[in-house]
Design a protein that fits this description.
The chain is of the alpha/beta class. It has two domains: about 180 residues, Periplasmic binding protein-like II (D-Maltodextrin-Binding Protein, domain 2), CATH 3.40.190.10; about 200 residues, Periplasmic binding protein-like II (D-Maltodextrin-Binding Protein, domain 2, 3-Layer(aba) Sandwich). About 50% of the residues lie in helices and about 15% in strands. It contains 20 helices and 17 strands. The strands form six sheets. Strands 2-1-3-16-6 form a five-stranded mixed β-sheet. The longest helix has 25 residues.
Length: about 425
């Protein structure tokens, strides 16, 4: 009898423990995350689970691509149902911050010793009026890809790609004449060609509330690009050309040189793994130094959620050892200086080490246009697009084309500044 009672007591205790255990799981607070589908890495999911265990949360992660993402987050902001943490392009954070939706993490960043390990440009990209509203997760930039075999066939040193715009022009001519392959491919996406006019002399699109790229140096660069097109040394996209078409042509051996980024390494490995190519900084004008257009995503905290814990998760996701694991898993580049200098990264060789070497030249060149909420004057916008088309399709004199762009863009800037007074 006593044995039976003891047995029953054990069963009751076990059932009660299971009720408490599963009840705790059922009623654990949810921590909501919005993440890009292409960045759903195994290492990040491990960190999410470690975080959930440490703080007693149930992770609710939603993965989306950017167009769907933007629509959903704006709807959630309006309805007061925003997630705790989001991954998004950093300039989104600045737009959202102006609407009062983002958590200001300035003091957290300043009191975090590790923040000094980041590229300065990574903080510039998430700063509005001196306040910080996010943190870079991935830190990438435009770079110059070149076909080593084509350079060698044209009598050029395949290990010494063109460094200046003038050397680039000469290489285009030699390659096209020697092997009848376009020296360069212009992209259908005007973001890529925007990279030519960001240099050490003009690192930002806007300075002191005015367009800052109309210089004699940039006019000369644009004239050289037009000269390359006029002489048939480059291929330009036809009307309606798809987003990735021109980059795919380079990958397939359709030209010798192309501006691209680390996102195309995976495409090369998939579609033409035997391609003998190199990666370096984008050629720049003589007398100045290189700069490139900063890319990548960031992470930020939405107001109204678990802000304290979200900050801890941000730090967990961006530790150097986690960054290295993400690089090994997906080839992604990162925003910490110590990541670039880490022996494991340097030991990875080409292409990771070569891409990492370009990061110190990367700047968020169009960040002020984003702060002003003027996408029209930046890449993909109608004002910039007209400028791009005047240069590569209409062959308008470069000085006139850049002046028209400057006038149109400055008018919009002044209108926006007046609206905000």
């Amino acid at each position: 009898m006593k044995g039976t009672k003891k047995y029953v007591s054990l069963i009751v205790a076990s059932v009660m423990w299971l009720v408490v255990f599963f009840g705790a799981i059922s009623y654990a607070e949810k921590f909501s995350i919005y993440w890009n589908s292409n960045h759903d890495y195994e290492i990040y999911n491990k960190i999410f689970q470690q975080f959930a265990t440490k703080y007693g949360f149930e992770i609710e992660k939603t993965t989306m691509l950017w167009p769907e993402f933007k629509t959903k987050i704006m709807t959630d902001f309006a309805g007061g149902t925003a997630p705790d943490l989001i991954e998004a392009p950093p300039y989104w954070f600045l737009n959202f911050a102006q609407l009062g939706y983002m958590e200001d993490i300035t003091e957290k960043v300043k009191s975090w010793p590790q923040s000094k390990d980041w590229f300065e440009a990574a903080w510039r990209e998430v700063t509005l009026n001196g306040r910080i509203y996010g943190m870079k997760l991935h830190h990438t930039s435009m770079a110059f890809f070149y076909n080593k075999d084509y350079l060698m066939e044209a009598g050029l040193d395949p290990n010494i790609p063109p460094k200046t715009v003038r050397e680039f022009q000469e290489a285009c001519a030699k390659i096209t004449k020697a092997i009848n392959i376009p020296g360069y491919i212009f992209d259908a996406d005007d973001q890529y060609e925007m990279s030519w006019i960001f240099t050490e002399e003009t690192p930002y699109l806007i300075e002191n509330d005015k367009i800052a790229i109309n210089t004699p140096t940039n006019v000369k660069t644009l004239e050289i690009l037009q000269d390359i097109i006029r002489n048939g040394w480059a291929l330009t996209p036809g009307p309606g050309t798809g987003y990735q078409m021109m980059r795919r042509l380079f990958i397939q051996g359709g030209s010798a040189m192309k501006i691209s980024g680390p996102w195309d390494v995976q495409n090369i490995n998939k579609f033409n793994p035997g391609l003998n190519y190199g990666i370096t900084i984008i050629p720049y004008p003589e007398g100045t130094g290189p700069r490139s257009l900063l890319c990548g995503t960031g992470i930020a905290i939405c107001k109204g959620g678990h802000a304290k814990e979200a900050w801890e998760l941000m730090k967990m996701l961006t530790q150097v050892d986690i960054e290295i694991k993400a690089t090994k898993e997906a080839g992604m580049l990162m925003p910490r200086k110590s990541w670039v200098e880490h022996p494991e990264i340097k030991g990875m060789g080409f292409p990771v080490a070569d891409l990492a070497a370009t990061l110190r030249y990367a700047v968020p060149a169009t960040v002020d246009a984003s702060i002003l909420a003027l996408p029209e004057i930046s890449w993909g916008g109608k004002v910039w697009r007209k400028f791009y088309e005047r240069i590569i399709y209409l062959a308008m004199p470069a000085k006139e084309a850049i002046q028209l762009y400057e006038e149109e863009a400055n008018k919009l800037i002044q209108q926006r500044l007046t609206e905000r007074k």
